[in-house]
Amino acid sequence: MIEKRNQVSNRRLGVLVSGRGSNLQALIDAIADRRLDATIAVVISNIEGAGALERARAAGIEAICISHRGWPSRVDHDQALARELRAHDVGLVCLAGYMRIVGAPLLEAFPDTILNIHPALLPSFPGLEPQRQAIAHGVKISGVTVHLVTGELDAGPIVAQRSVPVFDDDTAKTLAARILVEEHQAYAEAVQVMLDGGWRVDGRRFVRNRA
Ligand code: GRF
Fold first, then answer.
1. Helix, strand, or coil (residue 17)
2. Cα Rg of the chain (Å, integer)
3. Which of 81, 105, 136, 189 has the most CB atoms less than 10 A away?
4. Set 68, 77, 88, 118: catalytic member
5. Are 12 and 89 in contact (CB under 8 A)?
6. Looking at residue 158, what is its pLDDT?
């Protein structure tokens, strides 16, 4: 892979969501607390009535639904998302519980500038229900990964990770709750790293340049 430079053009975030939006809330709170120097330009849900839309509106952020249903193809939906994000002059896209695969139109519109948060220590347990997968495998440590989105599911360059212990009496639910606390810290920190620049993608590695 050819080495690429930081391409985040501004501090305007576009957040894609499908559900309750606790990670969106963590970004909103980090911005309010000045731990994160960014603006959320728009929140887009593919699900009507997602709790995340309410959280955004309560914070005075424009929140819209672009359903994945009713388009001739997946590509058309992704193109509509890319158009909306561009119309809001978004520099960095954050997937926050967005339950769709990101296709070529979005990846091409935002090269190396789409982040995802996944509740496992990738490359272990990609895909659905990673907390259940971790328990079933019997790992003693799990955690959260924030990574760049590429064409391969949950496999892009890793920007940040945080670990948590897995206890013998954990269920997927108790483990998910422990990981979620770390997610909320890790996402704001990773977004700040992206926006601060001074990083590059080297093969499959996300590398911060030395000062
Ligand atoms: C989080 O666990 C996130 O890591 C995963 O989906 C969940 C979304 O939760 N991708 P929320 O909507 O941010 O509360």
1. strand
2. 17
3. 81
4. 118
5. yes
6. 98
Separation of alpha carbons 142 and 175, rounded Å: 9
26-44 burial code (b ≥16 CB/10 A, e <16): bbbebbeeeebebebbbbb
Runs of H (alpha helix) within the chain: 22-32, 51-58, 74-87, 104-109, 130-137, 172-196
Q: Find, among 2, 19, 23, 30, the residue nearest to 195 by Cα.
A: 30
Listed in sequence order, the residues at least 6 apart from 70 whose beta carbon sits closer than 8 Å to its beta carbon are none
Q: How many CB atoms lie within 10 A of CB 70?
A: 7
The burial class, CB within 10 Å (0-12 / 13-18 / 19+), for 116 is buried
pLDDT of residue 210: 79
- pTM value > 0.90: yes
Please state whether beta strands 12-17 and 39-45 pair in parallel, antiparallel, or not at all (unpaired): parallel
Distance separating alpha carbons of residues 98 and 23, to the nearest angstrom? 11
Mean pLDDT by 10 residues, the chain (211 residues): 64 98 98 98 98 98 98 97 98 98 96 97 98 98 98 97 98 98 98 96 93 68
DSSP lists the bridge partners of residue 114 as 93
Cα of 23 from ligand 1 centre, angstroms: 6
118 is catalytic: yes
